[in-house]
Amino acid sequence: MIVSGFKPRDHILNRLIDVYCKSSNFSYAHQLFDQIPKPDIVARTTLITAYSAIGNLTLARKIFNETPLSMRDTVCYNAMITGYSRNNDGYASIRLFCEMRQGGFRPNDFTYTTVLSGVAQIVDAEKQCQQLHCAVVKSGTGFATSVWNALLSVYVRCASSPLVSSSSLMGEARNLFNEMPERDELSWTTMITGYIRNEDLHAARELLDGMDERMEVVWNAMISGYAHHNSFQEALLLFRKMRTEAKPTVDFSLSVNNTLLTLYYKCGKLDEARYIFNNMPVKDLVSWNAILSGYVSAGRIQEAKSFFKEMPERSILTWTVMISGLAQNGLGEEAMTLFNQMRSEGFEPCDYAFSGAITSCAALGALEHGRQLHAQLISLGFDSSLSAANALITMYARCGVFKDANSVFLTMPCIDSVSWNAMIAALAQHGHGVQAIDLFEQMLKADILPDRITFLIILSACSHAGLVKEGRHYFSSMRVCYGISPDEGHYARMIDLLCRCGEFTEAKGLIESMPFEPGGPIWEALLAGCRTHGNMDLGIQAAERLFELVPQHDGTYILLSNLYAAIGRWDDVAKVRKLMRDRGVKKEPGCSWIDVENMVHVFLVGDTEHPEVQAVYKYLEQLGLEMRKLGYLPDTKFVLHDMESEHKEYSLSTHSEKLAVAFGLMKLPLGATIRVFKNLRSCGDCHTAIKFMSRVVGRDIIVRDAKRFHHFRNGECSCGNYW
DNA sequence: ATAGGGTTAG
């Protein structure tokens, strides 16, 4: 029986669009869409959302434009605006928002929240923010606190941005805070952390003390603020006060708790986040995903793995987080397995999931498989995705095919600072320091703001190219021109650069001028410079500090004993060796390869007949390594040694060029197998080296590890399809 | 049907 005027078939077809989009079958969804005589607004909105989610704004906008004005509604505008916001196009988002209001459509909570999240990314955010503020105020008082919170958070974010003068903006934020119809725990937290981020602990504390209700979350924000500014005394006092006075967190609503979880893990307070999670009366997938992301971003990958197993349900996002987490922590194989498992369980990977899989190819140096994924991306229509393209650039660069990295970069529909960073890093990794700096200058000309990662890359590039003057210039410009204060990584690279050029006095001065205590990376950089310049006294100072700071790192023992040996302090060598044996430091294939390399260094600079050196020989023999010097370059003191010759195995270190030359000297026997140590930080680097070698040596090289072969011939690599 | 959870660069 059919009621007249109602067409069940059309209705079902419209709903089917949603089903196809949910299972990522966009091309089916679109085909079906084209066949429906009059697609309804829900079907249109679904498709707009789906295309925005995969970064295809062109198609999203096409469907939006084809929707007659009489049919459009607020939700449909919201979906399109969200598309722009999520794809970092704040201006387009605002433009459409204005159009929407001119067309007489009434923005709602979602509209304001999503426009605001787009606004935070643009340069004149301050002005836009004020206009939105007016719009919210004029529209009456009917908006949820979440909209006011979003507005507040944009003010605060702009205030901490180097682009605008912060003093007035924090004042504006405070005015907004005061005039909000209602304030919830999030409003208080945002305002207080805003003050803390702008280094105004007094204002933050005053606000906290003026609170009527005593909410634990807000107190916690203040405590973290104190801790972050090293005011541990105040932090502790406040903590004690909170135990007796504040209201606990656990009875907040689901969405507030979810926001809190995220807030906590993003400030590195993962265990607090987990505590809230454990005590939440109701949890949903968002809560689980937030904690999983917490474990992954903290690098606590074992915990992440077991948490993932425990999860009652999973979404594409869950899989994506886990896959990229594994890939980033050097577990490329597991990441690939999981990627396949995801597909076999019926999830069609989104572009982010592809990014994770591509990252694991980069880590494994699996170029052929990476190319296959690239092809799949194109056929699925994901090739316009920013994150996938950025991952591709890195993958091609790490696998040594700079050409392909470059062509991805050049054909991308839009690029961001990550793309630039990836390209600059690709050049720097290939030893083209000067070109890397050229590209960096181009980036500045294109008005893309450099970030802390950009400067890490640029300082390394200067260091590799020996460009001290430029390095000094960029190092000082990062604070002066871009408001980025150098962190330990930046200082370490700067010290590395200075030491490579023998500027030890300046390096020491820089260490003394640092606003924090020097840690491992600083001493390591100094030590490395001392080794190349034979500055033994300073080197030993650095090594001793390193030894105090990171006694758990096997390499440190060897470095220190190595240096003592070099200047003949054999008693000290013996002491370190004893400590090493007591701690049970073992030399297994899973250990850092650099350790063995450093041991060999002892033979070169020290007295090979000395009992301690003999002991090292014995130590290595115990582990089944029959060490033999094959030849080294006098200028770099690089040594290459083979493993037991009957196994015909050769070990690789990551020093590409040295390695290539050394292999050239060494005359590989036919059919030799090269063993790649799994713990090498970047196997891609190794692949570059071997490729180079296969060209220099003019012979095929096969690299084998537990699961696959890579075949190198005349500078190219092919690998078996194991997945 | 729209939000909250993710991705890529050292």
UniProtKB/TrEMBL annotation:
<feature type="repeat" description="PPR">
    <location>
        <begin position="284"/>
        <end position="314"/>
    </location>
</feature>
<keyword id="KW-0677">Repeat</keyword>
<dbReference type="Pfam" id="PF20431">
    <property type="entry name" value="E_motif"/>
</dbReference>
<dbReference type="InterPro" id="IPR046848">
    <property type="entry name" value="E_motif"/>
</dbReference>
<feature type="repeat" description="PPR">
    <location>
        <begin position="315"/>
        <end position="349"/>
    </location>
</feature>
<feature type="repeat" description="PPR">
    <location>
        <begin position="416"/>
        <end position="450"/>
    </location>
</feature>
<dbReference type="Pfam" id="PF14432">
    <property type="entry name" value="DYW_deaminase"/>
</dbReference>
<dbReference type="Pfam" id="PF13041">
    <property type="entry name" value="PPR_2"/>
</dbReference>
<feature type="repeat" description="PPR">
    <location>
        <begin position="215"/>
        <end position="249"/>
    </location>
</feature>
<dbReference type="Pfam" id="PF01535">
    <property type="entry name" value="PPR"/>
</dbReference>
<protein>
    <recommendedName>
        <fullName>DYW domain-containing protein</fullName>
    </recommendedName>
</protein>
<dbReference type="GO" id="GO:0009451">
    <property type="term" value="P:RNA modification"/>
</dbReference>
<dbReference type="InterPro" id="IPR046960">
    <property type="entry name" value="PPR_At4g14850-like_plant"/>
</dbReference>
<feature type="domain" description="DYW">
    <location>
        <begin position="631"/>
        <end position="723"/>
    </location>
</feature>
<dbReference type="InterPro" id="IPR032867">
    <property type="entry name" value="DYW_dom"/>
</dbReference>
<dbReference type="InterPro" id="IPR002885">
    <property type="entry name" value="PPR_rpt"/>
</dbReference>
<feature type="repeat" description="PPR">
    <location>
        <begin position="73"/>
        <end position="107"/>
    </location>
</feature>
<comment type="similarity">
    <text>Belongs to the PPR family. PCMP-H subfamily.</text>
</comment>
<dbReference type="GO" id="GO:0008270">
    <property type="term" value="F:zinc ion binding"/>
</dbReference>
<dbReference type="GO" id="GO:0003723">
    <property type="term" value="F:RNA binding"/>
</dbReference>
<dbReference type="InterPro" id="IPR011990">
    <property type="entry name" value="TPR-like_helical_dom_sf"/>
</dbReference>
<feature type="repeat" description="PPR">
    <location>
        <begin position="184"/>
        <end position="214"/>
    </location>
</feature>
